[in-house]
Design goal:
The chain is mostly helical. It has 2 domains: 53 residues, no CATH class; 208 residues, Orthogonal Bundle (MetI-like fold). It is built from 13 helices and no strands. The longest helix is centred in the N-terminal third of the chain and has 39 residues.
């Protein structure tokens, strides 16, 4: 009797992907490419202007007026020429004074007010918060004339940066509001435990609240530092008549006017003005992002 041998069907390995699995993987790969392609495009959209400024700053005087995108020779000497410009070092010193001292005074004056609005219960608390919010809605151009008359005519501080620095010692509405929203995320149980251990309000603020509020404090400090560093309107109003009190933002406009055909030097000066801001944000971005992210809008 003849036995018929039927060939067995091929056995699929256990780890072999099924058609449905291959389709899912292909879909996931296409989705990853699409998402990251948009991210890369967005990153290039923001980075390319900085690259253009950097490359132009390293060109020679003749090549900067051409359509070339990359320098033929890397002229690092342009940065030394800008740095040696009369007054540039003074602009740097004035900007550091304005941004640094203004940031410290803003943080010191805003933290107690934000702490009181977030953790204290007193009559008129909501009204005080509404006043703070209303100050955020008030454009600075509305009060610039009476403020200028006060600082320039009454106190004779025109031609200096003190009319811009001194007001930061009385708090900033945006910093108070932002920090107040962050302090609301700190549980009251920590404050109650500190008070049970014998801490007063000041020690509770300095020993308990401030260490936990570092991201929020870093956020308002960076906001104030960037605002002061890039401020053009304030120095133009109060310090324009005195070149010794100019800041980088206002001095850069004067430098551009004096070197309107030297685009390589103008771009080099721009890089020197932007570099500290980029460096500060690079080293503090984690605390900055955390402080902004954890700040919720709570009542």
């Amino acid at each position: 009797m003849t036995r018929l041998l039927v060939p067995a069907a091929p056995v699929r390995p256990a780890d072999a992907p099924t058609p449905a699995g291959r389709t899912a993987r292909r879909t996931a790969l296409l989705h990853w490419i699409a998402v990251h392609a948009l991210g890369v495009a967005a990153a290039l959209f923001f980075v390319l202007p900085f690259v253009f400024v950097l490359l132009t700053s390293l060109m020679s005087d003749q090549q900067a007026l051409t359509r070339d995108l990359t320098p033929d020779t890397w002229e690092w000497e342009n940065y030394r020429r800008v740095w040696d410009t009369p007054g540039f070092l003074t602009w740097w010193r004035n900007t550091l004074l304005y941004a640094g001292l203004g940031t410290v005074l803003t943080v010191v004056s805003s933290v107690p007010v934000a702490y009181a609005l977030a953790k204290f219960r007193f009559r008129g608390r909501k009204l005080s918060l509404m006043l703070v919010i209303s100050m955020m809605m008030l454009p600075p151009q509305v009060v610039i004339i009476p403020m200028y008359l006060f600082w320039a005519k009454q106190l004779d501080l025109s031609g200096t940066l003190w009319p811009l620095i001194i007001p930061t010692a009385f708090g900033d509405a945006f910093s108070i509001f932002l920090l107040r929203q962050f302090l609301l995320t700190i549980p009251n149980e920590y404050l109650d435990a500190a008070k049970v251990d014998g801490c007063g309000e000041f020690r509770t603020l300095t020993r308990v609240v401030l260490p936990m509020a570092r991201p929020g404090i870093a956020a308002i400090a960076l906001f104030q530092f960037f605002a002061a560093w890039n401020d053009y309107f304030g120095p133009q109003i109060y310090a324009s008549e005195n070149p010794a009190a100019w800041t980088l933002s206002y001095g850069l406009e004067s430098f551009k006017g004096a070197h309107h055909t030297d685009w390589n030097l103008t771009m080099a000066a721009t890089v020197l003005v932007m570099a500290p801001v980029i460096a500060v944000f690079f080293f503090a971005q984690r605390a900055f992002v955390e402080g902004v992210t954890l700040t919720g809008v709570k009542g």
